[in-house]
Structures are given as structure tokens and as C-alpha cells.
Amino acid sequence: MDCLFCKIIEREIPADIVYEDDHVLAFNDINPQAPTHMLIVPKRHIATLNDIEEEGDLALVGRLQFTAAKLAAEQGFAEDGYRVVMNCNDHGGQTVYHIHMHLMGGRRFTWPAG
Ligand code: AMP
Ligand code: ZN
């Protein structure tokens, strides 16, 4: 499949992988927007948030969030706080069509997002 993140999962393209289990992979974003900026992706290809199915995908999406919290604790900014973002389609700013959770920490973020 012609998907950048599937290729990273399959080790066809290198990435700075920070966490892996049977269901998810996390790696450092190539263009970090914070001192820590990781992407957490399901190993199963799901193109957008609109493609999540009630049958089978809900635990996987919960696992993305759970992994973000674990990595935030590991990175040492869980208590200070952090930002998680999932962009959907054009208006959401999605550029890679394999769902991913951005985990950003190590600085203060503003709200609302741009
Ligand atoms: P989004 O705009 O939400 O789809 O986020 C895609 C993210 O993937 C961006 O933050 C990019 O910097 C990041 N990205 C693109 N190519 C790579 C790559 N080869 N390795 C790591 N991160 C990447
Ligand atoms: Zn994919």
C-alpha cells in the first residue's frame, strides 16, 4: 500500500521509533513543533478519523490515547501537561492519510489552535 506510515511500520522507510507493541507504533515527528513531538499510529491502516468503525476499531483508538499518556509520563511532562492532536482531512490539516495522534510536550501551548 502506498502509505508513508505503513512503510514506516513495515520498516521500508526509516524512522526514529520510540515505542512499539502489537497494535501501535510511535516515532518522532520529522518536523517537530515542540521539544517532544511524537506520532502514535495504529499498525492497521485506517485512512482518516471518519473511517473508524464501531466494530473493531474503538479499542485501538483508545490505545492511541493510552499510549500518548504513557509516553508523556516517560518523557516527564505528564504533570506539567501536553497537547494531543488528531487532524482530519483538508480543513483539519491532515497531510498523511493514516490516522495518527500527535503528542507534543515540553513547552506551553496556546488555545485555540490556529
Ligand atoms: P498531519 O499533518 O496531521 O497529517 O501530520 C503529519 C505529520 O507527519 C507531520 O507533522 C509531519 O512532520 C510528519 N511526517 C511526515 N513525514 C514523516 C516521516 N517520514 N517521519 C516522521 N514524521 C513525518
Ligand atoms: Zn497506512
UniProtKB/TrEMBL annotation:
Highest taxon, organism lineage: Bacteria
Q: Which Pfam families match?
A: HIT
- The listed location of motif Histidine triad motif is 98-102
| UniProt cross-references to PROSITE patterns, sorted A to Z | HIT_1, HIT_2
Q: What InterPro entries does the record point to?
A: Histidine_triad_CS, Histidine_triad_HIT, HIT-like, HIT-like_sf
- Which species is this UniProt entry from? Halomonas saccharevitans
Residues of the HIT domain = 4-114
Q: Which PANTHER family match?
A: HISTIDINE TRIAD HIT PROTEIN
Recorded GO terms, molecular function? catalytic activity
Report what the protein is called. Answer: Histidine triad (HIT) family protein
Active site, renumbered = 100 (tele-amp-histidine intermediate)
